[in-house]
Fold this sequence. Notes:
Strand content: over 45%
Number of strands: 11
Strand order of the largest sheet: 6-7-5-4-3-9-10
Number of helices: 1
Structural class: mainly beta
Number of domains: 1
Amino acid sequence: MSLCLASAGVVKALQAAAFTLAWTHSIEKTAWQEDWVVTSAGLELTQARIKGTGAGMEPPPEARLVGGWFQWSPPPAPRREVVLGNSGAAGEWRLCSTGRCQTLSEIFGHPIGANVTVMSACKNP
C-alpha cells in the first residue's frame, strides 16, 4: 500500500504502509503524535499520543500515561481521506516512516504554507 499526499494541485505517493503523523499544538505548544496504517479501506488511526493536556486536546478517559505521553488506541474506523490544515502558528506537520521524519514542505520540495494537504490511500492503476 502507498500513502498519497495532495496539496495545491501536486500529488506525492510515498511507499509507506504505516506512518506516524506528528505536530505541535498551536496554542499549548505541546507535541502530538498519531500512528496510522494504510489499508485497502483507507487510512486507519491505530494509536494517538499527546505530551500534555490543555485547550482542546484532552486525552480520552481510556488514555494511559506511558513514558510521559498520554496514549490510547481509538476504535478502528478507516477514513477515505484525512485533511491537514496549517495555521502557521506552530510549525509544520511531520510525517515519519521507516525511521525518517520529514515536514510536508520537505516531502513536496517546496513550502506548503497555509495550503491544505489531503492524505489518502493511493488508488492502484
